TrEMBL record:
It comes from Corynebacterium minutissimum. It comes from the Bacteria. Keywords: Coiled coil, Hydrolase, Protease. Residues 295-400 are annotated as: Disordered. The keyword Hydrolase applies. The gene is qmcA. One of its GO terms (biological process) is proteolysis. This is Protease subunit, stomatin/prohibitin-like protein. SMART domains: PHB. Residues 346-361, 387-400 have a biased composition (Low complexity). Residues 171-198 form a coiled coil.
Length: 400
């Protein structure tokens, strides 16, 4: 029984030793093998043998690309504190696993120190605006510094990225306000330029329109003058040698009146405001037409040039005498109208005085005032009474 137990223990020990002599390394890994505490070799992916109880796998190092995120807080040249996140991508150099494992006790801390030092030295020479436009420059400087300083330790830096530059929240608000103000100013300048162009173009168009309108008015007046001259010559050719311009003016006046009447939007026409003025207007038109007709119908005697000159002077003097006579007649009519109006005012005032006295003293007590009718002839209202009173006054005036 005892020998069997010993045999079983020996078998178990041999099996344990056999299993301890084999180890497996995965892909993209490297195993550090030590023998009695001393480095022996580096084992890569696959199945490997080692001396049981003598050799051991100290550690396994990943050969994959790693990423380390570093947050750096620094100050720019214009004294603005910013936070700069930096992403460092690195790997162990194949064949330098021993240096990467044994040389540095904490490689990540070393990388962070190099990144912070390089970023702070680079950003300290830049303004805030320059730092935003120089992110690639900062990243290149960090990558170059890491490669130069960490290559001897078995580390290879694949890429270095400056992902953002974060100033203080108040600084960001100020920058946004500045940018908004600049955009508003540029928009205002652009809008003002557009408005200027619009106003200038409108002014140029208005000036051109006024120019063409003035040219059209000038041509219109020229045609009117030529037409009047032709009418004047036609009237003289027809035998109207005595004041043909008067007939032309009357014709133009009548044409203007017809044109005004035809216009739908014409609502104001300035005419003489008193009856005398209207009568003068129509009298002048009638006299002009009659005189023109008389001139046209009268025989035209052939007289010498000297006598024709005297006849024109006599005609002008006769016209002046006729105008003077018409003026005197108008003055006489006006004076008669004024006298009639004055008499009407006096009669109205006397009637008002009689009515006031009648109201104060009674109609029957006034001397010389007709007594109101009595009996059945008594008026039924004040209007009937005053009608009877007016009739009686008219009879008294007719009797006188």
């Amino acid at each position: 029984m005892g020998p069997l137990i010993v045999f079983g223990v020996i078998v178990l020990l041999l099996a344990a030793l056999a299993f301890d002599g084999f180890f497996i390394v995965r892909t993209k890994e490297a195993a550090i093998i030590e023998r009695m505490g001393k480095f022996v070799n580096v084992a890569h992916a696959g199945l490997h043998l080692k001396v049981p109880l003598v050799d051991r796998v100290r550690a396994k190092i990943s050969l994959q690309i790693r990423q380390l995120d570093v947050m750096v807080e620094t100050k720019t040249k214009d004294n603005v504190f910013v936070q700069i996140p930096v992403a460092v991508q690195y790997e162990v150099v194949q064949g330098s696993e021993r240096q990467a494992f044994y040389t540095l006790s904490n490689h990540e801390q070393q990388i962070v120190a190099y990144v912070q030092d390089n970023v702070r030295s680079s950003v300290a020479n830049m303004n805030l605006d320059d730092s935003f436009s120089s992110k690639d420059t900062i990243a290149r400087n960090v990558a170059m510094s890491l490669r130069d300083n960490m290559a001897a330790y078995g580390w290879n830096f694949v890429n270095t990225l400056v992902t953002d530059i974060r100033p203080d929240a108040r600084v960001r608000e100020s920058m946004n306000s500045i940018n908004a103000a600049q955009r508003e100013r540029e928009a205002a300048v652009a809008q003002a330029e557009a408005e200027k162009i619009r106003v200038v173009k409108e002014a140029e168009g208005a000036a051109e329109a006024k120019k063409l309108q003035g040219r059209g008015v000038a041509d219109q007046r020229k045609e009117i003058v030529e037409g009047i001259a032709q009418q004047y010559e036609l009237l003289r050719a027809a035998g109207v040698e005595e004041n043909p311009e008067t007939l032309m003016l009357v014709s133009q006046y009548l044409d203007a009146m017809v044109d005004v009447a035809d216009r739908a939007h014409t609502n104001v026409l300035y005419m003489p405001s008193n009856p005398g003025g209207m009568q003068d207007l129509f009298s002048g038109m009638r006299d002009t037409l009659l005189s023109t007709d008389a001139i046209n119908s009268a025989p035209k005697p052939k007289v010498p040039a000297g006598e024709a000159k005297h006849s024109r002077e006599d005609a002008a003097a006769a016209r002046r005498r006729r105008e003077e006579k018409e003026r005197r007649e108008r003055d006489e009519r006006a004076s008669r109208d004024a006298e009639v109006m004055e008499q009407a005012k006096r009669a109205q005032q006397q009637a008002q005085e009689h009515v006031q006295n009648a109201q104060q003293q009674g109609f029957g007590n006034m001397p010389g005032f007709p007594t109101p009718p009595q009996g059945n002839a008594q008026p039924q209202s004040a209007r009937d009474y005053f009608n009877q009173l007016r009739n009686q006054l008219n009879q008294n005036n007719n009797g006188h």
